[in-house]
Amino acid sequence: MSHGKMAEGMLDSCQLFFGEAIQQLQALCLAKEESVEGFDERIRAALASLDEGQGVLVLCDLLGGTPANRCVSLLTEGQKIRVITGMNLGMLIEILGIRATLSSVDQLDLKELTEAGKGGIVDLAEMMKELEDSFLQA
């Protein structure tokens, strides 16, 4: 879930890696003219269509943003969802790569997934310098 079309862009990018028909994956994008009530209805409909009894993992773009905040009420209602904020493409690709091995959303190691997302955020010039320095020392 995202503000604007970020979630659609991530879905589009994932299709480059996993093909066009990625099962049980949906992008929900909050439009600037959309009401919170309308967005809530779309969230509930998406969860109902995606959950086959194992629960649903929800990725949101921003902690404290409307998509994540709307998930708080779902969590307090006892919906079988897990929510990660600060989504990025590396994190989503990691999830899509492992999800076939899982029988429930409860089996996801969210700490590991958030670390995978953080691990893809680097200063490339600094990383190259560190690699060059370690190569020269070897």
Which percent range describes the beta-strand content? Answer: 5-15%
Oligomeric state of this protein: single chain
Low-confidence blocks of residues: none
Rg, alpha carbons: 17 Å
What profile does the largest beta sheet have?
A: 2 strands, parallel
Helix content: 40-55%
- What is the topology, as strand order, of the major beta sheet? 1-2
**Strand count:** 4
String of helices and strands:
EHEHEHEHHH
Number of helices: 6
Taking all residues together, what is the mean pLDDT? 94
Q: Which of globular, elongated, flat, extended, rod-shaped describes the shape?
A: globular
Helix and strand composition category:
mainly alpha
Keywords:
two-stranded parallel sheet, globular, 10% strand, 138 residues, two-stranded parallel ribbon, mainly alpha
Word description of this protein:
Helix 1 (6-18) links the parallel strand 1 (2-3) and strand 2 (29-30). The chain is mainly alpha-helical and 138 residues long. The strands form two sheets. Strands 1-2 form a two-stranded parallel sheet. The radius of gyration is 17 Å and the shape is globular. The chain is built from six helices and four strands; from the N terminus they run βαβαβαβααα. Helix 1 packs across helix 4 (89-98) and helix 4 (89-98) packs across helix 5.
Can you summarize this structure?
With 138 residues, the chain is mostly helical. Helices cover 53% and strands 10% of the residues.
Layout of helices and strands, plus pairs?
Elements: E1 2-3, H1 6-18, E2 29-30, H2 36-50, E3 56-60, H3 66-76, E4 81-85, H4 89-98, H5 110-119, H6 124-137
Parallel strand pairs: 1-2, 3-4
